[in-house]
Design goal:
Length: 334
């Protein structure tokens, strides 16, 4: 059957593509349902400096293109379509609109999705000044003032990309220190275009047809932010002894506060933890298998700790080797 595969991989980030390289190379008929926007989070990044084998770094999309070509070289078949439903049973069915494929095994490698702030005005202005991808949208803000929300490496990278275009970048962080790696912090804190608003939260994105500003809630006193010129003469909305609500004019808001596991497709099927990360089962032989026999998991959809491209690739390798072994055992035992 043309639509029956040994392995169906749902997802096309480092975990899914690494797994496909291994399973295809093992002569297992492999289908990657990659999604209409394939490649995972690395397609939205610029320079990746910490992936082994690239001493000068590599652009995220280039790295994913190379992985895909490597998988295709060994015979992996790709469908750049979005999954609508997944059915589990004796065989596993993946539906992509009007098309359906079946597999003897299934790998969940759907990765993670952007986590939004969840404040008024944000959803309405997505694509009209609210963004999660500086490499995609920075050029639209040439000579403008923008805000970056977050405190991890992703927020640092967003801010640094924006310095090539924006006139002024303000990082808004709810704590008084970043979670980002020291090297990324140093780059941001030493950049003349970037300032930081510490102990501050976005409570609303302002604007009707486009972003015009943000409403903020800042702790006071807030000595670490006193050097930020926007904080020195704020447009106050309200003030108490411990906090101030005020407004700052910006033309864009870049949200970089993390990601949530893309596990919704498998809700009610594969077991998850309270945050939605898909759990590996308790099979001592097949550690990457979920609670469903024949369904395996790899990458950020199950990893809430490391969340790195290299660890996702490692999980993909691990799952692929176990899938190969499981299919061999199933063939022998019937």
């Amino acid at each position: 059957m043309d639509n029956l595969f040994d392995v169906i991989v749902v997802g096309s980030g480092p975990a899914g593509l690494t797994a496909a390289i291994y399973t295809s190379r093992a002569d297992l008929k492999t289908k990657v349902v990659a999604g209409s926007k394939w490649g995972g989070q690395l397609m939205l990044t610029t320079m990746v400096e910490n992936y082994p084998g690239f001493p000068d770094g590599v652009m995220g999309p280039e790295l994913m293109e190379r992985m895909r070509k490597q998988a295709e070289r060994f015979g992996t078949v790709f469908a750049d379509k979005d999954v609508t439903t997944v059915e589990t049973g004796e065989k596993f069915s993946v539906n992509m609109g009007g098309e359906k494929v079946e597999g003897r095994s299934l790998l969940i490698a759907t990765g993670a999705l952007t986590r939004w702030i969840g404040v008024p005005g944000e959803e309405k202005l997505i694509g009209r000044g609210v963004s999660t991808c500086a490499p995609c949208d920075a050029a639209f803000f040439k000579g403008r003032k923008v805000a970056v929300v977050g405190g991890g490496d992703a927020a640092m990278e967003e801010a640094l990309v924006l310095t090539k275009f924006a006139e002024e970048i303000t990082i808004i962080h709810r704590r008084d220190e970043f979670k980002a790696s020291k090297i990324m912090q140093d780059r941001v804190l030493n950049h003349l275009k970037i300032s930081v608003m510490w102990n501050t939260e976005v409570v609303e994105v302002l604007g009707e047809s486009k972003v015009e500003g943000v409403r903020l809630k800042s702790q006071i006193p807030n000595p670490k932010s006193q050097t930020n010129k926007n904080f020195q003469n704020p447009k106050k909305i309200s003030e108490t002894a411990s906090e101030m609500v005020w407004e700052m004019q910006v033309d864009g808001v870049f949200v970089a506060i993390g990601h949530a596991p893309a596990s919704e497709l498998f809700k009610g099927k594969a077991e998850t933890d309270e945050k939605g990360f898909i759990l590996r089962g308790k099979n001592e032989t097949y550690r990457t298998m979920t609670n469903i026999p024949g369904v395996f998991v790899a990458g950020d959809v199950h990893d809430g700790v490391y969340k790195q491209a290299v660890t996702a690739a490692g999980y993909g390798c691990e799952a692929a080797l176990e899938i190969e072994k499981w299919l061999e055992e199933k063939a022998v035992t019937g």
